[in-house]
Amino acid sequence: MSDTFLATLDAEQAAKLMRHVSSDEALEAGILTPMAGTRVIRLFSLEEAERFLVQHDGKTMAQGGAWAKVNYVDPAHLAKWIDEVLGDKELAASLNELAATREPYGFLVPKIKVIITSRIAQANQVLGVVDVAAQ
């Protein structure tokens, strides 16, 4: 499923999708580092989740060596959180479709970010939120 095929949200759906969730509803992700292991991170909104996903190139990781880090959230877990907590079944289905390709995580991240970014923009448009950085 492509982000261009996601149906337009109504104001109630957009508000639910863009809200900040409580600590018991937060999405758990992790920052993985070879020397330190995994540090659990909690994400409280779809925008936070999108910003957390970082696309790395091989040079960045090689230069970091033992101190390199990867921000990781399981794509299927992210989709489930979007479905069950934020209530966007269509966005979740789109992410599940990507996860089902079983591509390596590093190849999925840019695709996930494009879909989520598009949905955030759509929700903000419905809610009348103006992106100050884009002006």
Structure description:
Helices cover 49% and strands 13% of the residues. A three-stranded antiparallel β-sheet has the order 2-1-3. The protein contains six helices and three strands. The protein has one domain (3-126). A hairpin with a 3-residue loop joins strand 1 (27-33) and strand 2 (37-43). It has helices at residues 11-18, 46-52, 58-64, 75-84, 89-99, 105-127, and strands at residues 27-33, 37-43, 70-72. The longest helix is centred in the C-terminal third of the chain and has 23 residues, at 105-127. The two termini are 30 Å apart. By secondary structure, it is α+β, with helices and mostly antiparallel strands. Helix 2 packs antiparallel against helix 6 and helix 5 (89-99) packs antiparallel against helix 6 (105-127).
Q: What are the key terms here?
A:
3-stranded antiparallel beta sheet; 3 strands; 6 helices; single chain; 135 residues; alpha+beta
